[in-house]
């Protein structure tokens, strides 16, 4: 499909009398040059399926349909956009439109085998969706996601950065993360009050097992919930100073200076897991991921 053969997105929105809904966190990206760049950053797809959440009027969808993606599965909660998205279907069966809440859908039932997720995520559910994909049973082949700039920076932050926190630790425990593109507010219709950025995440070949990941969520919630306090205080409900010493960390340190390996050691101690001796992750129990 060549998107240049279709009416422009603005013409399509006007024809259907549609505006963005603030309650859904909608901000439309209508510039096809921008959406094509995002798709290039996400690919190549090599015939694999792509899931797009919150496609709205279909700006990113049009670029995905021009790409080497196999099946393109759209998950759209707002029924107003289903007719617009249906107009992009060429009858080949390549485009699948699912009406539903992306937080509730089961991705493994939408696609067979490895799949990418490429989305301009609605601002109000971006972080919960990311956590779902990072910690759930279904593992994507890769994720290329647009967030508010502040959220994107939190995903890729390093120890000592102002943005470093729970989201960085959990995301980087599971994936290799890169911030690949910045977009000003003026790129969207209507313009949001903040700038946006695109993050590319590729799941690691080895990642924390389910129990360790749950323990990591508990540890980071406690540590960053009181980030200005020393670990002996913020982690007191989980063991405080004794827990820190079991993980080889100083109880006087604060969460913002602890690297991923340190948090994985804390999580392993909380989960009661014996270290296998791997140096890269600080001895955390890991599982090999299954894509798809």
What does the model show?
This protein is α/β, with parallel strands linked by helices and 292 residues long. Helix content is 34%, strand content 19%. The chain has helices at residues 9-16, 32-42, 59-66, 82-86, 126-135, 149-156, 166-174, 210-225, 231-234, 240-246, 260-271; strands at 28-29, 49-53, 72-76, 95-99, 115-120, 142-148, 175-183, 188-189, 196-203, 206-208, 286-288. The radius of gyration is 21 Å and the shape is elongated.
List keywords for this structure.
292 residues; alpha/beta; 11 helices; 19% strand; two-stranded antiparallel ribbon
Could you name the ranges where pLDDT drops below 50 across 5 or more consecutive residues?
278-285
Compressed to H and E, one letter per element, the order equals HEHEHEHEEHEHHEEEEHHHHE
- Global shape: elongated
Mean pLDDT: 89
Q: What is the total tally of β strands?
A: 11
Helix content, binned percent:
25-40%
Gyration radius (Cα, Å) is 21 Å
Strand order of the largest sheet: 4-3-2-5-6-9-7
**Which range does the strand content fall in?**
15-25%
Structural class: alpha/beta
Distance between the termini: 25 Å
Task: Count helical runs.
Answer: 11
Biggest pleated sheet: 7 strands, mixed
């Amino acid at each position: 499909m060549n998107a240049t053969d279709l009416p422009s997105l603005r013409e399509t929105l006007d024809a259907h009398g549609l505006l963005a809904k603030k309650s859904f966190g909608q901000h439309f990206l209508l510039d096809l040059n921008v959406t094509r760049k995002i798709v290039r950053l996400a690919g190549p797809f090599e015939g694999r399926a792509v899931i797009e959440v919150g496609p709205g009027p279909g700006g990113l969808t049009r670029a995905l349909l021009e790409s080497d993606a196999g099946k393109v599965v759209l998950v759209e909660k707002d029924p107003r956009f289903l007719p617009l998205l249906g107009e992009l279907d060429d009858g080949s069966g390549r485009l699948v439109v699912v009406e539903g809440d992306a937080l509730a859908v089961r991705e493994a039932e939408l696609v067979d085998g490895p799949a990418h997720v490429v989305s301009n995520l609605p601002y109000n559910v971006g972080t919960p969706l990311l956590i779902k994909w990072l910690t759930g049973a279904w593992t994507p082949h890769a994720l290329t996601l647009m967030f508010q700039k502040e959220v994107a920076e939190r995903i890729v932050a390093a120890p000592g950065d102002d943005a470093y926190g729970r989201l960085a630790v959990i995301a980087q425990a599971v994936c290799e993360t890169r911030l690949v593109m910045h977009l000003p507010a003026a790129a969207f219709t209507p313009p949001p009050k903040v700038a946006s950025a695109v993050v590319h995440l590729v799941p690691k070949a080895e990642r924390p097992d389910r129990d360790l990941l749950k323990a990591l969520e508990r540890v980071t919630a406690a540590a960053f919930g009181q980030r200005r306090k020393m670990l002996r205080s913020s982690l007191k409900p989980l063991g405080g100073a004794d827990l820190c010493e079991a993980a080889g960390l100083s109880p006087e340190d604060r969460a913002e200076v602890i690297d991923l390996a340190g948090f994985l050691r804390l999580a392993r101690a909380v989960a009661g897991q014996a270290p296998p001796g791997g140096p890269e992750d600080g001895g955390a129990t890991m599982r090999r991921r299954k894509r798809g």
